[in-house]
Structures are given as structure tokens and as C-alpha cells.
Amino acid sequence: MTTTDNTSFGNSILFFLNGDKVIIDSPDLDLTLLQYLRNTGLTGTKLGCGEGGCGACTVMVSRYDVEQGKVTHASVNACLAPLYTVDGKHVMTVEGLGTSANPHPVQERIALLHGSQCGFCTPGFVMSLYTLLRNNPNPTEREIEECFDGNLCRCTGYRPILDAAKTFADQAWKRGAAVVNSDGSVKAVSKSEQQEKGCGIDGCCRLQKPKETTFAVHEPTAPFKGEANEEAVAALALATPSPSASSPSSSSPPRSSSCCGGKASGTAACCKAETVATAPEDTAAENQAEIDKQMVIAKFKRYDPTQELIFPPFLIRYAKGTTAQAEGEAQMRPLKIVAKDPATSWCQRFYRPLTLTGLLAVLEEHPDAKLVAGNSEVGVEIKLKRSKFETQVYVSDIPELQRITEHEDSDSVSFGANMTLARFEHELERLIAKHGAQRTQSFAALRENLRYFAGNQIRNVATIAGNVVTASPISDLNPVFLAADARVVLASSSPSSSSPSSSSSSSSSSSAEKATREVRMSEFFLGYRRTAMRRGEAMLAIRVPLNAPGECVRAFKQAKRKDDDIAIVTCGLRVRVNSVTRAVEEAAFAFGGMAPTTVLATRTAQSVAGRAWGDAQVLDAMLAACQDEMRLDYAVPGGMAEYRTALTTSFLLKFWAAACAALGVAGGSSFGSALAAEMAADDAPREVSKGAQEYAPVGDRAVVGKGVAHLSALKQTTGEARYVDDMPPLQGELHMALVLSERAHARVVGIDAAEAMQCAGVRRVLTARDVPGENVWNVFRDEEILPTAEVHYVGQPLALVVADTQKAAQDAARAVRVEYAELPAVLGVREAARAGAWFAEERRLQNGDVDAALAASDVVLSGESYCGPQEHFYLEPMGAVAVPRGEGGELDVFASTQNPTEAQMVCAEALGVAASRIVCHVKRMGGGFGGKESRSALVAAFAALGAHHTGRSVRLVLERAEDMQTSGQRHPFFGEWRVGVMRDGTLRALRARIFSNGGFSHDLSVGVLERAVSHIDNCYRIPHTDIVGRICRTNTQSNTAFRSFGGCQGMFMLESMLCEVADRLRMPVERLREVNMYRGGDVTPFMQPLPPADWNVPRMWQQLKPRFDARRAEADAFNAASRFRKRGLALLPTKFGISFGAKHLNQGMALVHVYMDGSVLVAHGGTEMGQGLHTKMAMVAAETLQLPLEAVFISETATNTAANTSPTAASASSDLNGFAVHNACRVLADRLRPYRERMPGEPFSRIARTAYLDRCNLTAAGHYATPDIGFNWQTQSGLLYFYFTQGVALAEVELDTLTGAHTTRHVDIVMDVGRSLNKAIDIGQIEGAFAQGQGWATTEEFLYSPASGRLLTQGPGNYKIPSAMDIPRDFRVSLLEGADTSTLKTIFSSKGIGEPPLFLGASVFFALRDAVLAARKHAPGAGAGAGAGAGAGAESGGADLPPPLHLEIPATPEVLRMACEDELVAMARIPSEQKEGRLPFALRI
């Protein structure tokens, strides 16, 4: 084959989509699989990030692997997969599995076990689990958890998703075991074949010994029987002791609320009879959460893998090349496709060869072609860097590049360059089992790093060659290859080349078809992203030697998040020692993340050469040499210079210990000997997570309070749920793109759109002069819709481009030229506070005589606190579609907004029309968390402007990076404080000055500040207070509402202060909290009494305190025995005030229609973003109208059915809209009562029709205004909050002090939610808020460039929200039962729950702080406070007290490692004179 012979190429692709054959001629080379799917109406597959980092776009791609001779199924990121890659494959989307009326078992279980809240990420989770089951119908719980490592969820906290998925784990008794045949078909295994293995549940009662410990358990009166699976009973849910159970020990075994054999627990027939203990006080006599779960599970469809859609047999023949061409069947052919528009396309020509010879022929003609396999690197470069590649060659259909060869003559193994990383991992496992652990240590090291390499979706398509030849300096695999002395095998079409010859260490050979050569990895990397490959060469394989006797190999990696994250530092370390003398014969220490390329630490290796491994002096010399060789400059790209340097020696120390143990050498250092015993914890698999939920049954209500699943859950799991960008495009619809500022602060000298207007398909470029109405918006009217004279942050929208397609609009937006005149810029809150760069507003709370109280205190301390920003990271980016109605300026706006009324008003004002002409519609949002409360109005206004000027529908959906640059985040806060305290810990006085980073405009910053100031007391009585809050003006995006809305920042200010006070007083901080905790009747700093009947924090604290005490003793014992791994605990309370700060917003409205068929339509002012508001409102309506829940429907929120709505925020929406719905339904119930009394026993449909015929009004409006509310900040009088939602959390963590990595071992939460409207939904809100708070406090670091003011963290690639693997390994949530709700004047005595639990996520931060304190006891000069920031200073009475530990949020691995002061950290510190006057690479604002 020659590339010039076009007759040998095809230009069409053939694949199957959900069972149907699809043929596309000359497909668009720029089109991704995701774009194709969504363009064809399969919108269940979502676009969350566009860079393969969130998993929302996951689909299953199946192919027949000719080399392996079997069908393989792979979860794939459709956003990165070019459409041309699916030739010969079968693509399954969420729509292909089932419908809401007939869901697949995966869809059903995730939906009904509360695994879907906003639902935007749900299809991705469904497809990841479905793919796992197609490959392995009998997965373990660990395999199930790990299949989600490439999927992110921002709502649920993951626990319910994992619980639902684990119903498929090893339960052959329940759904039939099965094996997968090579052709993809499934063979069922009879139940009799499984009897000897128990029922399949972990800890099956048939296989367990009787337990001595007894627990309070619920006993069903009869076994639950399922409809579709009558023999299945509550198998998954093993209840656990309640937080107040009599045995508080964390080592207590789980309890079971029914025996796994289906008998009532404790009965004579039970195979696991136990004595039932009495339920302790404050614990539900029966756990309705487990009963509800069991009843749902028992009714699940039986999962029968034999009934899955088969892999099309035609595709097997197609892959093998055995299609019946005579009968017209297509044949798989090499492809050559030319771009339809080469001028704008990312790729001008595309090849897909099917053989190595064909590939080399293409490369001979196009030696600079870009080779593409998984597109995980190229796709991101195109997406984020706008890179263009003239010629692309797809190589994943070439069998020769996927082969594995064992070379017995050289004791090595060659792995095909294009072997996917998923298969590579499998082959490594096979080889380790075949050759034994000692000879395959390099393979084990590769496998270790692969375990945490990206997510499954990336590993399923990314290849060895892709990882090697991209020459990334932070590659996970290259350091191991380099340390193992691997060889890269390169191939070209002929021996001759214009490039320089290979080095002497390279070997070469040639044949008629190709020339090959080998290059040692040590000579392969020439510089940043440069290798020794010649033009026209392709990587054929990589050859890795087996290990010799006396060798030890290990790999280490540290990232911000353990799973699916790029490395900060990674390494491969190898040593070979003489078995007799222990002398080091060979050493190779390779590091990534320490230079522009992967590098060998040659001087470090030389420092141990010939010396006895195990001697303390050798260790010291090695560590010192490594520090010297790997030291980084303060302003090094990527930042974290000290941390990265410390990691290199930390890894070497770990390796020293591991090698001493593996080689049977006694480590001569106290470091090494202590660490050797702890290394097993690094290698041991992470515990599989488990969870328990607890609440009592509801006996006095028919609907309200029950654990009903989210009413849209099945629509969300099946892909039927529609979001803004899922709306089918209207005829002639246009797309919009933003022109963003490139300066942090500048005058706009001019905007030149001439070049943009010449781009194909461009209709308009809009600037400030094109706003026909008012060009200012927000409450303070201090922000322009489009700037007229100045820009105030990098990323501020300057102009709008409207074009025929999204790509055309984006291309044209980049062609707009802007001239700037730069102005001074301020980024950080500390800088702004100290410079007095404030907005005018101030909020102050003063009580008592602070000066006198400070003077009378035993100890006066001063210090500061800081907590950073947080990105909302709702999975659905901001978006809006504006549709002109064609007359009178009428416009429909379909928006992803929490505030449809503000979107309506801003659009109306911008267009200069009455608000009555604009209707804003909100069906649902894919998450909001406050981020879509105000800033979403701007997106709606942009779309409305485009529709106004073009007269056509305009769609604007932000890309993830645009969203993160423009939409605002949680406010960073900085505080300075002085506190007076007595020796017994009693707080006497507090003077605090707190500052928020408001960004460039007010937005909602005043409200955020008010809540921060009013929550700084948290749960503690401080008699004398002087608290002042100010908002700093900076040149960043305008920060905005975020779940907890300033409350968590205010509480953190105080809690971090308490920790430092406790350090000073040598007192456990939990004791300090107890001593100062409010009692019923106490008064807050804003003069609001805490009603004794509704002050439940002390009660919940006492429920968790016994468990804390037991775990404290266990942690102390562990820490005493462990030098480098430390456990920490925190017991943390919270109270959160419920009400809007602005009095007028504390109102809700509803409109309820009863139709003559008996169905009910409810419209109310709240929006659905996953929090279950519509479900709760439907339950309120059903309860009030005495109807089944199925009779009530809520379609959308729209400003023509619910006018003048308050934003869905402040955790008050259920209160406000719930009472409004209740009031409307009560009117209807009163109207219908006579008919019901006249027609007893008649169906409601007949009653409704009779009332209609009698001309009874079957429509009612309801309104509710919160009574008594309203606070005056000037006089400090009035009621600020209607009530408080309260909770307590107990967290336990384990910290690796050498890296800063940690695991959250246990979390127990007790939450007071009053009388819940829906207990299951409230549990989900608690878990989701906790996970979000945990992320804020630990992994989510928002960074700016101090040089340019540009946001550096613009997507999931470098901004890390918690993953499913980050949640507590044991996560227990209980609702407080039996509390006095008589003083609650809320709807059905419920409490708002969306925001209050978020601060409890900070319990993980405080537990980590506790672990760091334990680590610092080993530090040189133990007790010193240096290194972690400036701790509290003693102004009086504290000269004899130790300095405290100062930590700030987020406590990333970098922060934690550097706070664990030890010799390695001290060695890594950069002298202050080397930092003087220099800007760091990145800045926390």
C-alpha cells in the first residue's frame, strides 16, 4: 500500500450505535463522538468539562480485539474520542440501556437508592457501572468502587451511588452468576454451583462465627418479599450501630437488621440469631432508613447478564476481515479523510492504517504527522491550547502495535507501544503471577503507578506510547521505565534518515518492510516535550528487563488527589546490592516533576555506589545528595518548590525502608527502621467504603417525611431528563461565544472586530454600545453587562460573537482584537485588606466591654485565620437559550439559573422592555450550589442580547474554563483576632476583624459578609465581642453565593482560633469547645436567644462523645506505635441560621391546578437543582390534598406561573415555597371538602370532575411570608434568623506525614433537621454538603498567577474536587429523633438542610490538624511552631505556653507535609533571602 494510491483507502466509517448500524461518509474530522451523539438527539451523554476529567460524557465502546480473540467493552470519554475512532465498534449510550418506564437494573438501582440528585453526572456513572458488568457480571465491591475513578459527582457525596452499585457485587444467589465468553456472550451459572460459597454478601451469616458483641437492631415482623425477585431480601444494607450506641468503639462489628437468608433477625429460624440489646436514648427504636432500603432492594429487577444486547456478529467479521463482500457487506479498510474546511479545521487530513507497514508508509510521506490513539493528550491540547495538527494518523487499529513478546534470551518483555494502559495493567498482573514477585518488581512498580493513573475512561484508550513519547515531565510511567533501564523500540520505513544517528547505546536492525532501532530510556528525553525520535519514526514497543537477584524496585507518586490526578512528583527507584557485602552494585533514581523532563538523579545514585546499603551514613549521604541535586528555584513553573524537593527525599526514605525490608538488610537509621514496619500501609489496598444511615419511621403522615426517591431520578438515570443544552435546536438557531479580557485591570482603548466579522458564519459582534437598555446590573448597580471603559479581571466578558455554529463563534471570538492600557491590579485578600482596598459597607456586632474583659483575662492571644475560595463545579456549566416570540419584544429565556426572576429582570432592563415581555423558564439545573443565583443572570442577558439583535434563537453554553473564569467563587476570608481566655478555657472576649475578597463588584458580598459576621460565634458563648467585617475590592471575578454563604468562613475563623488557643493552653480543643458551648436560653452576639426546646447541639455532642473517646484512645495508641503515619480526630459542631438576610426575600408563592381527571399541577417559586425541592413540594401538595404522590406533577419553574420569586437559596426554599404550596392546596382542599363528603369512596378523578361541572374553582394561589423576621444592623435589633439547623460531626483521618496524603477513615454525623419533609433526601443533602465541605477544606485549591492575574485552575485537570475514593471509608449519618419541635413554625415542623452540613466537612481539616500535631512531636525541637504559618502570639499571661500550629484552608498535601516539621522539610526550605522580591508561580487569593 502507498499513501498516494487513494483507491486503497476508504473514507467512510461504520459502527453500531445502541444496536443500530450507522455509516457516515467523510465524517467531520473535528467532530467528537459526544458532539455526534448530541447532534443526533442522544443528549443523555453530557458535556461537563470537555477534557476527560469529569466522566459525565461516559459511553461504552465495544470492539472485537483480533489479537486477544475476544470482545472487549470499555468505558470511554466521548468528549475526547474523535468520531472517526469508532469505526468497527459498537457504541452504547445511556439511552440504549432502558427507559424510565422500563429501566435497566443499573439505572433502576441508582435511581431508587437515591444515587441521583441533580442528575447531570448520572448517565456517566450508569455507563461506567454498566461497562464493568459487561466485562465482569460478578464484580467485587472493590472493583465496583474503582470503576468510578474517572467519574465526578458534586451533589451526592458518592455514598448512595456506591451503595446502589454494590447491589451487583458477588451476589450470585440473587441475580445468577455468569461468565463472559470470548464473543461477548454470557453464560449463566446455576445457583447450585454457588451454594458452597455462601450467599455472596460480604460477611454472609453462613460463613461467620457467632459474635459476642450485641447491638440494637430492628426486627421486621416478616421477611420482605420482592416483586421481581421474591427470594431476595435486604441483602446489601447491613445496619451499623447508631452514633449513640452503647459500644462506641470504632472497631465494633456491623449489625444486621435482618439475616441475609431472609429470616427475621433473632427468630428461631434465623441462621444468625443474636440477642437484641435495648435501644439507647436518642436512638430510633427501629431504623427506618435500613427498612426502606431493604424494601426497595427486594423489589429490584433481577439482573440477568444473558439478556444484554449482544455484540453485533457482523463487527467480528468486520474486524477479522472476513465479511461477505460478495453479498454487499462492508469491509474494514484503511481510511484517508480530508477536512471539509481545512482553513478552520484542527486537522486537515486524517489516516487510519491497519498495519504497521501502512503506518510507516504514511509516515514516510508525512514524517511530522501526529499519531493519535486514545486522543487523551491531543484532544486536550486541541481543547485547551487550540493546537492544530495538519496530519493525524490513528494507530489503535494496528495489531502489531498491541502485541506482547517475552524475550527469554534477554530476560525482558516487550510491550506493544499501542497497548492501552488498561490492558497493560492486566498483562503486568499476568506476568507477575507467572514469573514471581522478585523478578517482576519493575512490573509491580508500573502497576502501582497505573492504579492511580487518570480514570478508567482514560486508561481504556490511552496507550504506553502516548505516555512515553509525549515526554511529559510529570509522566507516571516514564520514571519507572527510566529506573528499570527500559529500551524504546522505534520503527521507520527505511534505515536511512536525515536525522542524526542514534547514540552508541542504541541498537538497530532492518528488514524489507521496516527498520528498527532501540534507544535506552536514559537517552530518550532530550528536553521539554522533546525526544530522540526521528522524523518519520513510530514507537513500536518498549522492552522492560526482568529484575535480577538482589534488586529492589519501587514507584511513588504524589498528587493533590490520590485518584485520577496528575502527579506533583513521581518517581521510579531501583537498587541492586551484593547479597554478601550489601554493597550497592547499581542504582537508578528517576524523578518526574523535578525538571523539564523525566530525569535520573545521577549524583544521588553515585552517593551510594559501592557502599553498604543499610548503613545510616549511606542514607544520610543519599538524602543530602538528593536535596542538593533536586533543589528547585522558588519561582519554578508549577510552584511548590519546597514541597517538591521534600517529596524527593521522602520518597527516597520510603524506598530505603522498603529495600532494606525486601533485601533483608537492617536499616541503620532510626528513620529507616521505624518506616520499614509502616510501609505495608502504602502497599495495602485502600479499604472499601461503607456507609450507614439512620432515621425513625414516620407514623402520623401519609406522604411527608417518607424516604421517597427523587421524582426525576429514573429520568436522570435513563438520560431522559432535559437540561438547557439538551433542548433541540430551533430552526435557524445561532450560537454565541464570549470575548474575554486578557488583563487583570486595564482601560479598553479599542475593540477591533473586523477580522472576526470576516470569519465564515459570523452574524454579529456585540459590545457595550449594542445594549439597547440599561448596561448596568446587580443590586448595587456597580457592574456593567459589557464594559464600556475598563476591564477589572482576566476573563471578564468584553464582547459577544454570534455565529451559525459554536465553533464558528469561538473561532471568531479569538479573532477579535482588543487594545489595552494597563492599570494597577490587586488580587489577594490580605494585600487588599492591608492596603485598605475596601467597599464602603461595614458590618459590626458589639456586645459588652471587650477592653475590660481582655484586661481581666488570664491569657490574651492574637493571631490570624485564612480560608481560600472554592469553585462551585456544578457539573452542568452555565447556559441559556433565548427565543424571540416574534412580536412586541417578547422573549422566552430557558436558563440554568437559581433565580429566574433576576434573570427575567436583567434581560428586560438590558433590552429596554417591560419584565412582562420576558418569560424565564427553568426545568432543572445540573447543580447550582449558589453559583447560579446571581451570576447566571448575566449569561441569560448575553443570550437575550443576541436574540434581540438577530431575531433568532441564540444558545450560549459556557465551556468549563469560561465558567470558572467568569462566574465567581466562594469568598476567600482573612481574619485578625484577639481573644481573652481563662486558664480553664472559658472564653471571655473576642475582637475580630474579618475581610472577604469580594472581587471587582459587590454582587452578593454584603449578604455573605453579614452571615460570616453572624456565624463567627458558631456554637459558643463569648460574653464580650467586637466583630467587624469588611469587603475587599480586588481584580478578580466578582465572588458570589456558595452553599453556606459566608457561614462556613465565619465559623472557620473562630474554630481555627480555638485550635490555636487550645494549643497554647495545652488543652484538647474538644474540651475547649465543651467548656464554651451555648446552653439553651443563651443569647448570640446578634442578640437572638437560643430556645431551650430547639437547642440540640449539646445533646448531639453527647451522642458522639463516647465514640470520640474510644477512638481517641485507639488513635493515641496507634500514634505511639507509628512514626510516619499518624491518626487524628475532630469533634465539630455547627449551627446555621435559616432565613434570607434581606427581609423581602423571605416570601414564597405557588400556583396549584386540579384538573378534572384528578391530576394536580403545581408551580412554585423554587427551582430544582438536585436538592429534591420539587419532590418535597409534590409531597407537601399530596399530603395537604390527601392524594397519592403520583397524582402530583411539577413541570418547571417559570416567571409567568410564579412571579416575583425569591432565589432558590439560603436553605429556605422548602420553608418558603412549601408553605405557599400548602396554603394553596389547603384552599383547594377546603373547596373540595363538600364534594368528598358527598361522594365517599369515589375516586378523586370523579370528585374533581364533579366539582368542575359544578363550576368550582380548581385553581388556587398560595403565598407565604416568614413572620417576625428582620434585623437592623445599625441598631443590632430584630430577628436575624427564623431558626437554626444544627449538627455535630466526628471525623478520623490517617495522615502519611512524609507526603501529606491522607485517608478519611471514619465520619459520623448527627443532624437536627426537625421533622423532615423527606428523610432520605435530607440524608443525601447532608452527605453531599459534607463532601463539598471536605473538598473546600482539603483538596480544592484555587490559584492565580501573580504576574498576570490569570486563573490557573480552570478545570478538573488542575482543580480537584473529591472523588468517590476520597469519601470516608466508614460514613454514618443519623437524623436526630425525638427532639422537641413545638417551637418550630415551619412547614410540617421541618428544617432547611441544604447548606448547614457543609461546615461539618471541615471536621476532616481539624482531624488532619490533630494528626499533624501528633507528627510534630517527633520534629527537631518538638513543639516549635515554625513552618506552618504564624500561629497565635501571646500578648499577656502566655509566656510559659507553647506556640500553636497554624494551618489554613485548604489543607492540601503540600500544606500538610510541610507542616509536619522534620529533618527532610528543614532541608527543603528555601532561604528567605532567595524569595525576597520575587513572585511565586501561583498565588492563593
Could you characterize the architecture of this molecule?
This protein is of the alpha+beta class and 1485 residues long. 28% of the residues lie in helices and 22% in strands. It contains 40 helices and 53 strands. The strands form 13 sheets. An 8-stranded mixed β-sheet has the order 27-31-25-38-35-36-37-46. Strands 12-13-19-14-16-15 form a 6-stranded antiparallel β-sheet. Helix 2 runs antiparallel to helix 5, helix 11 packs antiparallel against helix 12 (441-451) and helix 16 (602-608) runs antiparallel to helix 17 (616-630). It is globular and about 90 Å long. Mean pLDDT is 89; it is low at 1-7, 172-177, 190-284, 497-506 and 1423-1428.
Taken as a percent bin, the fraction of beta residues is: 15-25%
Give the % helix: 25-40%
Strand order of the main beta sheet, please? 27-31-25-38-35-36-37-46
Shape: globular
Q: What's the assembly state of these chains?
A: single chain
Strand element count: 53
Mean pLDDT: 89
Q: In whole angstroms, how far apart are the ends?
A: 59 Å
Number of helices: 40
Structural class category: alpha+beta
Radius of gyration: 32 Å
List segments where confidence is low: pLDDT < 50 over at least 5 consecutive residues. Answer: 1-7, 172-177, 190-284, 497-506, 1423-1428
The largest pleated sheet is described as: 8 strands, mixed
